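S1.2 Input.
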Amino acid sequence: MQGEKSKGSGLQGLIRLISDATVGVTDLVEDMHHQVVRPPVLPSTPILVMVTNVAGFTYNSVRWSTRFISGGLDKILGQLTPLLGDLKTTDQREAIHAALNGIVGDYLEAKDNPLQIKMQVRYQAEAIPLNCKSIEAVYPSVNGKILLMVHGSCMNDIQWAQNGHNHGAAIARELDMTPIYLHYNSGRHISLNGRSFNELLEGLVLSWPVPVEELVIIAHSMGGLVTRSAMYYGQQQQKTWTEYLAKVVFLGTPHHGAPLERIGNYLDVMLENIPYAKPFARLGKIRSAGVTDLRYGNLIDEDWQDNDRFEIQGDKRNTIPLSPQIACYSIAAVIEKEQGAAFSQMLGDRLVDVKSALGQHQDPAKNLDFKAENTWVAYENTHLDLLNNPEVYDKIKSWLV
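S1.3 Output.
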């Protein structure tokens, strides 16, 4: 029945998403129509007003019919769910689902769309209920050393496995730890995911079948920011899990933001200020709250509340230092050779620059002050190579031994 429910709710979610997208495109076309037929710089005439009113009736009809049809399909699919049969999970389907959540996950959550990912811990793509019996059923030889893997934006827990290698599985095997993987909607605000992760970690530690000895987290990209956010809220609330957190390894985490999102922000503002291009500024604003949080590396609610996330406002983050009680490590990737051009090295892996990945900032108050021996640069590596490069793995293992 779980597979039947998954397929039914997935199709319902897709119908709702297509419906909303159709209405959104209709809004965009109508706005563009106004810009062309009734330019803001020219006076209106009776004939232009009449044309615009007729077109407006047409656009409203498209919106109404789209919502009506999608509502009917939604109800029909709900009734047909028991008849749809099982839908097997595939890596490709999971990857598409994760990418969709990364791009519009906040919207899916706001609309309570069935396609939204609910935060959970998983092993081999199967969710693990947070109770002693369920954990023991997944790990017959469970021990007190927990290794928790946290994926990045638009990704999922399955994608830690790259080219036949999985950092989590390999380290757990060699260092005798129990691997577990976080799965979450990366389109939500980072601080909201941080709060949820904080609560989930508390439940995980309190439900663990044997006494917890230590908790180690390896986080990739945005996952590092979600982890730091959870650490902040956990320490503020004096959660039990924070007492066991011994080490955190950050892989390509944009501690001080990602250049591409800052460029996207500038493009938004440029389009808004060009009359005929203004309607298309909406397309740039489709990207999720999670993505816009990557502009400077927002961690807590106060970093984004009461702010228009599409305005250019500069870096207004609160300073959240690393905890001195936790050993923190960071790896940056650079696609060029070590002897490459300085500009290329500055760009890092093209998604995250080196200084951001290593927590370095021109403002001393925002510098994360990783110990020199706790940082490393992986040359000739892309952002995703950090997930399977043997040298990266060896470095992580040397820190965790």
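S1.4 Remarks. The chain is about 45% helix and 10% strand.
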